[in-house]
Design a protein that fits this description.
CATH topology of chain A: Tetracycline Repressor, domain 2
Number of helices of chain A: 9
Number of domains of chain A: 1
Low-confidence stretches of chain A: none
Distance between the termini of chain A: 51 Å
CATH architecture of chain A: Orthogonal Bundle
Order of helices and strands of chain A: HHHHHHHHH
Helix content of chain A: over 70%
Oligomer: homotetramer
Shape of chain A: elongated
Chain lengths: 183, 183, 183, 183
DNA sequence: CATGAATGAGTATTCATTCAT
DNA sequence: GATGAATGAATACTCATTCAT
């Protein structure tokens, strides 16, 4: 059921999605959802939390085989993008909610929880970036935000049948930051 | 009037904003707005278009004093960010709509116009990036998307009284891409 | 519920009737109506259809006892008028919608259905008139339209406590057409 | 201007017609109409009154050449129908309002004036019918209502390019009532 | 657990009307 | 006389939510 909700939220955004949309996607009626979740906002939050859980798990799993910090970062990005735009039927919807649902869509009483979840997820990248050997004086926080911004933007332009795979995108974006672009 | 609408749209998002909110912000009544714009969606589009116009103008103006391609890019980013998060009472709201309003907030009949506007704006950056002297084989399109993603993300974490000015952010982000981060 | 709607539509006309009027007459709230009928126009159409059903049934029932074609026509007219202006608490409102609601009150997307219903009802009279033994060369279609026009006009001048009963009106109108008025 | 209003009222009915529709048809703006008529209802009433004036004049004119009472009635009906459904660019719209606008469309404060106008017009037919040599005991009032109902119904089924001209309809309807239909 | 029916607080939109210019 | 702009009351319709069954 959470999955169906995720699918709908990702596709249409929180505001436009109605409880009936979700109900239809789950094969229930709107009223029944309230047995499981007390409100639409709570349902979204549950979807969001599950999304964080899954993407985090996927990214962590990608770190397993050891490697240089840059390699690990690149693998993490690959995993992240695969969740975002990949075709995995189960996971993709959850990850997509990350990007299609903006903070101000959330009911105010959930803002705090939302931020906690975001931070929790970004912690993974914080760790990865902190481990990178970088030039002295690099602003690692800004680097992280620069990277995450670029990653979250991918679903807005990514085309499943386009020339770039998530893996390729990860490789190129990593290289840009690693080696720079000046000849 | 467009300005007031922009302010409200940016602050609350399109879906949650009510015509009465906008009316209150303009000092009119809700009905009066319809004399000038035929629907809420059209109003949003008008705000968006005006935003594109202003940001484009600001970015173009920043290119005036000549310089190296990288300098010009950095100045463009600075201008872009100043519009996005700056305190200029007139311009900021328009630019913010860029980021706070997602495509699916728009009524479907405006999607086409929306894409045209986005493309129009991004053309400025395409030109700037095409002018950069880069390593052979660089995927300039991906670079542009990476940069724009990072820029559009800034308003989500930027704090007006924080330690980083738009100028500083622009300088650092540019340097990251220009010289890379490996020591 | 249809009955309450019919009562209100007949009394005030489609345009002026508000969903809240109907809701009040049914003991519900305006929103609840939409659970049963997707729009005001659909509700009107449902009322109209039910009206056709009832009037047709009443007219058909009146034909049962056999008789000459003219007797049958007269009985049909009586039944029709009793439905239109009679005090039967259940049926009258439905029949009244026939007359108080003009085609252009209907939303355009229902025009087709409306015409089909009208034709369905008038078919009863077509059959009755076709069975009449008439002078050679009589334009039976025009006769039918002449009759129906006269009948539909009755509710506009009928007074419940006036001197004429539906039965009397039917008898006189039939006689006029049957025997003519020349001495 | 009255003519333009008549055209719009006839085509769409009172309720659906907006002041802007009428304004557009007259080449003015909505506000300007209020210089000439104090309200939409008053405008409709003015149209209605002008309609009565013109139809009455046309019917009266048709009576000029002397003839038997039945001939005069038939000529009156012809004139009436020609005004209703004819192509005369000036007159037709006014007459049509007669039929397309039902009493309950009128604002209540005009009901009285409306009834007076209707009665005034029907007086012409009252006179004509009173002059007919009829069987003893004929209910002349009911006859008049029967006839007027049939006439008002004509615009609902009349097709300009159909087989029946107003003149033919008048002749046949008159004959039906005059001589009856029994062989 | 699930549903169908109902609710009521919104929401965009319409439109007759007003009025300063 | 005419207009553009504004008004505000009304209105159909939506939708998260409730709840008896």
């Amino acid at each position: 059921m959470l999955e169906a909700a995720a699918r709908v939220f990702r596709q249409k955004g929180y505001g436009i999605t109605t409880m009936r949309d979700i109900a239809a996607a789950t094969g229930m009626t709107a009223g029944s959802i309230y047995y499981h979740y007390p409100s639409k906002g709570d349902l979204l939050l549950a979807v969001y939390a599950e999304g964080v859980r899954r993407v985090t798990a996927a990214v962590q799993a990608a770190l397993e085989p050891d490697g240089t910090p840059w390699e690990k970062l690149q693998r993490a990005i690959t995993a992240h993008l695969q969740m975002m735009v990949g075709q995995a039927p189960g996971d993709a919807p959850f990850a997509g909610v990350f990007v299609q649902v903006l903070p101000h869509d959330f009911p105010p009483e959930h803002h705090e929880a939302l931020i906690a979840l975001r931070n929790g997820y970004e912690a993974t990248f914080r760790t990865l970036i902190d481990a990178l050997p970088l030039k002295r004086g690099t602003d690692r926080r800004l680097l992280r935000l620069q990277l995450i911004g670029a990653l979250n933007h991918v679903p807005q332009w990514y085309r499943p049948n386009g020339p770039r795979t998530p893996q390729a995108i990860a490789r190129v974006m990593t290289r840009h930051l690693q080696a720079g672009l000046e000849p």
